[in-house]
Fold these 2 entries.
Entry 1:
Amino acid sequence: MLHLALFTIFGAVAVAGAVNLLVQRHPINSALSLIAVMASLSVEYLLLGAEFVAAVQVIVYAGAIMVLFVFVIMLLNAGEEELTRGSRVAILVGIPGVLIGAVLIAWTLVQHSGTGEVAIGALPGRPETIGWLLFHDFLLPFEVTSILVLIAIMGAVVLAGRPVPTSQQPRKEA
Amino acid sequence: MVPLSYYLVLSGILFTCGVLGFLIKRNIITIFMSIELMLNGVNLSFVAFAAHWQALSGQVFVFFVMVVAAAETAVGLAIIIAVFRTRATLNVDHVNLLKL
């Protein structure tokens, strides 16, 4: 009963935040509602027993990634979104696509609705267990992600770094 | 006890909100946040299925999704800064050339 109540409250907060992200016109409001979605999702993870995932969700997602978003919004001085007429392709393909997706999800759920229940803290994902798995079963993927992060750092520095003006290069030779 | 399908419904709603935002929104930063919303919806279904099947590798996979999302955010926001520097706009309708 407590499980269902907590699930409903924080699920409602997550859905409200997601809808608010769509409704708000200013990007900073969208970013703040996305933080609310991520925080309530971390409570859902805790209810399922995934302690490590919940902590990483708060630290990495709601902390690091969203701070980066808010920082870029401030840096670019992003104002209110200007409304433009939606492209015809988006209407022709998007609305049927969303409808098909919703029908598929609903159909799958109806077909498999009797798949049993999940108890509170069903699978305790403690950091030591996750760490053991990461460094034994998933050692190669873990090392590959370190290379991915290194490439991402270099790409971000190259892309966002101030480009050298071409007019200054001949002056250097002279 | 909460049925597994409730978690999947919540995950599906979050994912659909992300898809809708990706299609509707015109601000490039908000579109990027919609992608993060979609990733979050998928993560929730990963954790729910991990609890249902008693398989911890689902939670490890969520960790990998978060790492990829962090890398994607770093590169994507750098691209947004580069685009803004050359176009002085964040509206995707005005970004219609591949040329910087």
Entry 2:
Amino acid sequence: MVAQTIPATMQARSHNGRMIELTNITKAYAMGTQTVHALRGVNGTIDRGEFIAIMGPSGSGKSTLMNIIGCLDTPTAGTYILDGVDVSDMTDDEQARIRNRMVGFVFQQFNLLPRTTALKQVALPLMYAGFGRSERLERAKAALEQVGLGDRIDHKPDELSGGQQQRVAIARALATEPSIILADEPTGALDTQTGEDIMALFQELNDQGITIVMVTHDPEVAQCAQRTIQIRDGLIVDDGRGQAEGDA
Amino acid sequence: MNLSESFLTALDALLANKLRAVLTMLGVIIGVAAVIALVSIGNGLDAFITGEIQSIGSNLLFVTTDSENSGGYPALSLDDVEALSDPFNAPALAAVSAEIGGQQEVIAYGINERTAVNGVTYNYFDVNNYVVELGNGFLQSDLDTRARVAVIGPEIAETLFGDTFPIGESVKIGGVSYEVIGVTEAKGESVGSNPDTTIFVPLSTAQSRLYPRRTRTGERAINLITAQAVSENQTDAAIEQITETLRDQHGIIYASDDDFTIISQTALLESFSAITATLTLFLGAVAGISLVVGGIGIMNIMLVSVTERTREIGIRKAIGALRRDILLQFLIESVLLSLIGGIIGIVLGASAAFALSNFLGELVPTVDLGTIVMATSFATAVGVIFGLYPAWRASNLRPIEALRYE
């Protein structure tokens, strides 16, 4: 369904199990008169169905990397292939289309629209994808049921707990059946118990075959992932495959 | 994302902040209301003046002396009226009447009044849209015999005779008694004269007893010839025929100017209409300025709104909104503000116009569809023009920065 709506100019999707392929990604910003090199040549791959945690101290470039993986930003140089589509150099609107169809975002601050019911929040990306009203609401409802909020579809954010709001955000990320779910500190604004519940939900989704990339600074949260990528000073210092990959 | 979705999204946003929306609309409401009220009054004025001019009669041509070219003498006489009445000279004319007039001292039952006394031809009442309500008008025989009879306006009848039935009573004009044979129907005061206080006597009587002026050639003079063209599109032909006939009558050589002036009712209507149209345009433009001020108010609030909702815009972009989607959402918001304001303004403006009509006497404000359509499209245009920049700003926000905005 989603694949059919991808512009024809894009390449066919790969079938080798690679979801994300980063080659020599660099990113430089102009900060006043200085140039800041946030990423200095990142290489790495993430396979279909993986649950990845990206860790690194602040200023390490992990936010920049996440923005690039999420198609919110383009690299200065290098190639980024997402689910077989080269997304390294795109216009704003092309990026918006890719985000809409291939990336589901989950933010630390939930980032829900105020005064909008859960059902409408989740239906919103489907509206931008061009689905008709009834199909939108049907899919949104299914996504909310998937995250265990089938009985809260008419609640607005201020009528929901933090954990429930984050579940709405996850349902919204799932709605367009994206290639990856990108989570930025998803438990950062939640208490420990609720955070654990959310991580359990992520694990459940991952068990269903959904690829999840999560940025966190909390080693305990990172434990939930199958693999942890360590980033420091704009470079991947440990891709989490370690010896195992070398031996294979 | 289609238009109706954008529309609902925009409506939601406006309803979320009702007081602000209403205050923002206020500028447009006042602007549109002012346009509608003032243009309606302007249109009413036009209709009023047109009605006044048309009440004089239809397809009329007025011929008077051009004092600059007549050597100080009145130029027109009854001979001219006769020449113009001949269908051989002026086939485009249906009727020709003449009058001479001035102010006279009139007395009846010891009441002394100064009023207009006009000598007129027998067909004067027909041509000039007068109805003789009581008694009769004049006959050709009254003119032939210089009869001392009078037809009087209803107001002067009331002044002179009160409750007494005026027909058969006598009124002294210039020291001579006239028998009242008719009373005209009330016509209402018109520009410059009041037919309801005028006394009419036969033209020949007036010429010999009240207004003895003569033309250069010694004919008894008249002030005004009122000719009626057979139809509106014959007016130009009638003007040409009158000019030729009168030049011939007055023996004016080719190189000399006319000693008379012809004004057509059509030209009169046109010149007054041009004045009222200019006035209406001016009033509308002044009111339009307040509409522009209202538009600036919309732009101001939309810019605030874009800043306030930066994070929302970031979220929408992150989950796939295109620039066009955001642009449309904010543009529709500003257009809705101006359009709803415009509709409220139309209702208020029309109400104000009709409320004002109580103080304007016979002038009835006219709210026509054209004005409403114009005001509505102008209000919408204001919404688009002043909403474009804020919407463009919103659509150009970068999602990363917008999401980080607190």
